[in-house]
Amino acid sequence: MLTSINPATGDTIATYEALTDAGIEQRLARAHAAFAQWRVSDYQTRTALLGRIADAFEADKHALAEIATREMGKTLKSAIAEVEKCATAFRHYAQHGPAMLEDRRFDTASGTATARWLPMGPVLAVMPWNFPYWQVIRFVAPTIMAGNVGLLKHASNVQGVAAAIEATILKAGAPAGLFQNLAIPSAKVAGIIADDRVVAVTLTGSEGAGMAVAAAAGKALKKVVLELGGSDPFIVMPSADIAKAAATAVTARIQNTGQSCICAKRMIVHAEVYDAFMETFIAGMKAVKAGDPMDAATDMGPLSSAEQRQTVVAQLRELTGAGARLLFGGEALPGKGAYMSAGVLVDVPLDDPVANEELFGPVAMVFKVADMDEAIATANAVPFGLGSSVWTNDAAEKERFARDIDAGMTAINQMLASAPAAPFGGVKRSGHGRELGPYGLHEFMNLKAVME
């Protein structure tokens, strides 16, 4: 049984029966049959379907967004924006997908070789609750364009979203079996990965989940893409627009109530501008309004669950016990719901184990550094390497940060955000492989050489 609980109230929304083994088998057989047909579909058929799905998401964006807000607590306005972003991804691959799949010819000693991108088969996606639509669609859109078919194992607390995605794609005219939701517990994932009909797996989630899925995929000799945790640095140098950087840092930290892999979690600020940055940043964080996520005036809703809030509170307790100072906030708010106040943490000891963990809540860690070398060293001091944001107007500093920060992505003078056209992914314990852009489309395709 899978249960969806509204984190704003603590009330149960719905319960869902988990698929039986017979139900799983039925869906795997359907995916296998659907792939046999979809793999030979032409690009026009695929792009037309992507366009219709985009239209369907836009037409139902308010209803779809309300499901996400009720199930995991993000503000309704941000949930609507998330659904709209999904439509842009479908349209991006509809417009640019065929060009990404064009053949390339090479001369060889005996003639020519043509490199062709060919579909592989059913791909399993294991997805989290924090961006319950976007995380799935950034897998689904390239999957459809590639000629593959998709199977979704979504987080247990957002089964309403999972069902809505499947229903919306079917309503747009997708063939039966092209995309299917699997309402299953995590214990069933390894068995599905092992099934010969499933060719690869992609996961967005925790390190533990990533290790489990990677182990299962490795045992079955199957390709895996992993997008795991992040503890993204947000570096501010003296040449930056400090007021803009500080204001953006607030948004970058509290977006999705701090529950984003690419949230700016560690503010690393040059000593020359530290005081000016902190004055604006602290004022902004103190002004953050936590409340009803359905209210347009709310800045951030509750955390996704009472358990998630307990995890963050425990991390803060460990850090302050080790010498860090919580300037304000970071407290569980009274009343119903998993609400928490935004906060700022300073004097964080880099050698404390929790300083090397992902803080998945609306509390920022702030570090003062003396120069660029120390900023880079502090940025790279954690085991994660997903995203990063750098604020400087010095050309040499921009180049140095882009080269030397250990991360899959670096945004310069802007908040890091994913986009359909740009590759998304990390290094170190943040995972491997890429989503989005042409690289995400190619991850689960057979690059076949045809010799003539």
Keywords:
20 strands; 452 residues; single chain; 7-stranded mixed β-sheet; Aldehyde Dehydrogenase, Chain A, domain 2; 40% helix
What does this entry look like structurally?
One of its GO terms (molecular function) is succinate-semialdehyde dehydrogenase (NAD+) activity. It comes from Hephaestia caeni. With 452 residues, the chain is an alpha/beta fold. The protein folds into two domains: 2-228 and 430-451, Aldehyde Dehydrogenase, Chain A, domain 1; 232-419, Aldehyde Dehydrogenase, Chain A, domain 2 (3-Layer(aba) Sandwich), CATH 3.40.309.10. It has helices at 21-38, 43-59, 61-72, 76-100, 134-146, 159-171, 189-194, 207-219, 242-254, 274-286, 306-321, 372-379, 395-404, 437-442, and strands at residues 2-5, 12-16, 104-108, 111-119, 122-126, 149-153, 179-181, 200-204, 223-227, 232-236, 264-270, 325-328, 343-346, 363-369, 384-385, 389-391, 411-412, 427-428, 431-432, 445-451. A seven-stranded mixed sheet has the order 12-13-14-11-10-16-17, with helices on both faces. A six-stranded mixed sheet has the order 7-6-5-8-9-19, sandwiched between helices. The protein is globular. The model has no long low-confidence stretch (mean pLDDT 97).
Count of alpha/pi helices: 14
Gross morphology: globular
Main pleated-sheet profile = 7 strands, mixed
CATH class of the largest domain: Alpha Beta
Structural class: alpha/beta
Helix content: 40-55%
> Per CATH, which architecture of the largest domain?
3-Layer(aba) Sandwich
CATH-assigned homologous superfamily of the largest domain: Aldehyde Dehydrogenase, Chain A, domain 1
**What number of domains?**
2
Domain Aldehyde dehydrogenase: 3-450
Protein name: Succinate-semialdehyde dehydrogenase/glutarate-semialdehyde dehydrogenase
GO molecular function, one term: aldehyde dehydrogenase [NAD(P)+] activity
Keywords: NADP, Oxidoreductase
